[in-house]
Amino acid sequence: MGDDTDDRERRFYVRQALIDIAPNAITSAWAVDREEYPFAFEFIDRIGFREVNFGERASDGQNMMIAGDDQRRRGFTICVECGTLQRRRKQADHWKNHAIYCARPRDAATPSAECVFLYREFNSEGIRLYLPEAAFGDAETRVHSFVAAVQMGLERRFAGAVEHLRVARDVRIADGQDNPRQYLVIYDAVPGGTGYLKDLMRDPQPIFECCSWRWLRSSCGCNTDSEADGCYRCVYRYRNSFERDRVSRRTATLLLKEIVGYQDKLKRVSSVGEVVTPNAMFDSELEKRFIEALRRRPRRMRSVLISVLQSCAASRGTICALVSAIGGSNRRRCWAPSRES
To answer: What is the 3-state secondary structure (H, E, C) of 137-188?
Structure first.
């Protein structure tokens, strides 16, 4: 708020948390013991965060892909001498963009501004979740819907406001892998942590309580409206207005229901990075999503599709590990894809 107004103007900024995790900071980890759905999570008692503010959200920023997040990042334009933020003003008020002692306004021939990003660094605790690539990869509606549902679940789990618990996306390449993997990190914005997340990771059960789909279907009146797919009393309030069209209550319910369905199939692992997914061998996100669409078909329809794909592979050799990815038992009938075919 500047001295030229008495009212605080609400603005939206592009913010992103960049994450650094030391291997010895992982205290416990679990993974679903099913090849077709490699969901996993781990508790990390010390995570290094660099929370970056890339400037006000606007359409005139430069597109940048950072840690898997592609957005327009405008930055903050400041005077190189006095550090005053350069705002859009009328020509008569241009002097307000500089401090009184600044000589730049009198030296018009010298460039007076540069673009910067603001950041803060801190250490805290967090929970990292590995999302199955076929179910979540390159599908913004699924990711944003899942994040909104998890934030709603955290609030219900602790029976109160938990604004200090935030969710960041982390895209990186795991050891021994060639393709980037997508993680979600639930972290405590209070430096050092408050102990909330440590309470969640005493055992796997509290995580699945936050992912319960039943309360998502019963906690809001919009469930009775056949045309509504969420509202500001449930999932919409956990994402800002720029992401509202990417949030779906129905999508979140399907994702949570599937995750909870694997609750009794957990095993301990040393880290979520060691979880191997068969879909990692596919070349494109389109192939991964195609596999996920097949896997979600009813069992009877899936068996017909498997038979068709097996015959295609036998005649052309074009499908790679397709049957195993959708639950087929006879994997030897599918061969690696032929680039010439």
So the answer is: CCCHHHHHHHHHHHHHHHHHHHCCCCCCEEEEEEEECCCCCCCCEEEEEEEE
Using CA atoms, how far apart are residues 46 and 247, in angstroms rounded to an integer? 30
- The answer to whether 203 and 222 have CB atoms below 8 angstroms apart is no
Helices (runs of H) and strands (runs of E) counted in the chain: 9, 11
Q: Are 54 and 117 in contact (CB under 8 A)?
A: yes
Q: For residues 327 and 267, give the distance between their C-alpha atoms in angstroms, rounded to a whole number.
A: 20
Q: 117 is written with which tokens?
A: 């990003």
Beta carbons of 253 and 293 less than 8 angstroms apart = no
Note the Cα 168 to chain centre separation in Å. Answer: 6
d(CA 33, CA 170): 23
Look-up: residue for tokens 């919409």? 236
On average, the pLDDT of the chain sits at: 75
Average pLDDT rounded to a whole number, residues 257-274:
87
Burial of 71 (0-12, 13-18, 19+ CB in 10 A): middle
Look up tokens 């995580």; give the residue: 207
Q: Is 44 exposed, middle or buried (0-12, 13-18, 19+ CB in 10 A)?
A: buried
- Alpha carbons 276 and 289: distance in angstroms, whole number: 17
Residue pair 316/341 in contact (Cβ under 8 Å)? The answer is: yes
- State yes or no: pLDDT of 116 exceeds 80: yes
The better pLDDT of the pair 268, 180 is held by 268
Residue 281 is predicted with a pLDDT of 45
List Cβ neighbours of 87 (8 Å cut-off, separation of 6 or more).
96, 97
3-state DSSP assignment of residue 108: coil
- pTM (predicted TM-score): 0.70
Report yes or no: 202 and 229 within 8 Å, Cβ to Cβ. Answer: no
- Tell me the pLDDT tens digit for each residue of 268-322: 998 888 776 654 445 555 555 565 566 555 555 555 555 555 555 444 444 444 4
Q: In this structure, how many other beta carbons lie within 10 angstroms of the beta carbon of residue 124?
A: 21
